[in-house]
């Protein structure tokens, strides 16, 4: 007799996995990564594919990938014409994937393929996004770990989606949450946030983390600036994509109001107190606030045009349907 949990398990194992690894100068890591992935995935009795995206590597990565793909049909390789960055490479892998569950993982073995089954347990429990948390992170203490823990707090506060480690590449997504998600810049770390805003169920589990043994990290401190700017963009796009004039125009009107108030004040000082207009900085302030205000309102109008092009050229809608009944 099959119990309902057996049937559930059978259903779950029917979900195909797409493992996606962006690769930039990882020639020594590629064979090792494949070995570890293979050791974890093969016994699981699920359908799977391993998509390796060569992001314009300058070393022997492509040759290593070709060798692997020759021997293993489940390894699919995409070679990008030039280096486009980790997020873009990941996006490319997602675009070419066919699995029901998407699992990005770094190629440098800092993430451990042995954690994949733990992520899947949570997916099988019904979560849409399972994010890895590098509890015991093996990167430079101050330059990486400290900076990133501050960044994690900020992102958590601003986004209202509370994870402890946004930057961990190892995550698992149900394909449905990635539909329509386009990633730019450093945005791959914000996908759980975005998904959660759209109503996805997300959770976080501790995963192992290892020091990099071969090759070197492609990132330094400059990434912090990019991440902060991307966070502003994500936040802005979420709240105001449909009506940017409310943000630009709101700021513009405030600035124009300040301009009028400073002008009135200057006139008051001149007419009542007898202070000449050139004796205070107020007229200058008023003129500047006026210019800034008008410019902001014009920028808002410009953004409205852009937003219309965005929605209408791609046939996008300003709402997201979860379900339709009797339709
Ligand atoms: N990566 C990439 N393109 C790049 C930089 C990095 O595809 O321009 C890949 C890299 O090969 C690795 C992952 O992205 O698989 C994470 O990169 P890295 O280990 O340098 O980042 P860190 O672990 O230091 O944050
Ligand atoms: Mg790394």
UniProtKB/TrEMBL annotation:
InterPro entries: Glyco_trans_2-like (IPR001173), Glycosyltransferase_2 (IPR050256), Nucleotide-diphossugar_trans (IPR029044). The chain crosses the membrane at residues 245-268, 288-307. Its EC number is 2.4.-.-. Keywords: Cell membrane, Glycosyltransferase, Lipopolysaccharide biosynthesis, Membrane, Transferase, Transmembrane, Transmembrane helix. It is an enzyme of class 2 (transferase). SUPFAM superfamilies: Nucleotide-diphospho-sugar transferases (SSF53448). GO terms for molecular function: glycosyltransferase activity. Gene3D superfamilies: Spore Coat Polysaccharide Biosynthesis Protein SpsA, Chain A (3.90.550.10). Residues 18-179 form the Glycosyltransferase 2-like domain. PANTHER family: UNDECAPRENYL-PHOSPHATE 4-DEOXY-4-FORMAMIDO-L-ARABINOSE TRANSFERASE, UNDECAPRENYL-PHOSPHATE 4-DEOXY-4-FORMAMIDO-L-ARABINOSE TRANSFERASE-RELATED. This is Glycosyltransferase family 2 protein.
């Amino acid at each position: 007799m099959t119990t309902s949990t057996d049937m559930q398990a059978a259903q779950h194992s029917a979900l195909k996995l797409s493992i996606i690894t962006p690769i930039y100068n990882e020639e020594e890591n590629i064979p090792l990564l494949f070995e570890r992935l293979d050791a974890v995935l093969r016994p699981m009795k699920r359908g799977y594919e391993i998509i390796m995206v060569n992001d314009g590597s300058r070393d022997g990565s492509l040759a290593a990938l070709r060798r692997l793909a020759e021997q293993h049909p489940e390894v699919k390789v995409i070679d990008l014409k030039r280096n486009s960055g980790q997020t873009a490479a990941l996006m490319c892998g997602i675009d070419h994937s066919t699995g029901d569950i998407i699992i990005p993982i770094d190629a440098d073995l800092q993430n451990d393929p042995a954690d994949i089954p733990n992520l899947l347990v949570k997916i099988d429990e019904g979560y849409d996004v399972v994010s890895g948390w590098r509890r015991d992170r093996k990167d430079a203490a101050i330059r990486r770990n400290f900076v990133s823990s501050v960044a994690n707090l900020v992102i958590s506060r601003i986004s209202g989606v509370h994870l402890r480690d946004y930057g961990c590449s190892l995550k698992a997504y149900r394909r449905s949450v990635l539909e329509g998600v386009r990633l730019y810049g450093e945005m791959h770390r914000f996908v759980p946030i975005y998904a959660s805003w759209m109503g996805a169920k997300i959770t976080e589990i501790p995963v192992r983390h290892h020091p990099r043994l071969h090759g070197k990290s492609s990132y330094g401190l400059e990434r912090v600036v990019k991440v902060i700017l991307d966070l502003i963009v994500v936040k802005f796009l979420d709240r105001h994509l449909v009506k940017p004039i409310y943000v630009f125009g709101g700021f513009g009107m405030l600035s124009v109001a300040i301009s009028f108030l400073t002008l009135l004040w200057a006139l008051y000082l001149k007419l009542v107190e007898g202070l000449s207009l050139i004796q205070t900085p107020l007229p200058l302030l008023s003129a500047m606030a006026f210019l800034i205000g008008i410019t902001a309102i014009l920028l808002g109008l410009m953004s409205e045009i852009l937003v219309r092009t965005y929605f209408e050229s791609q046939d996008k809608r300003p709402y997201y349907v979860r379900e339709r009944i009797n339709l």
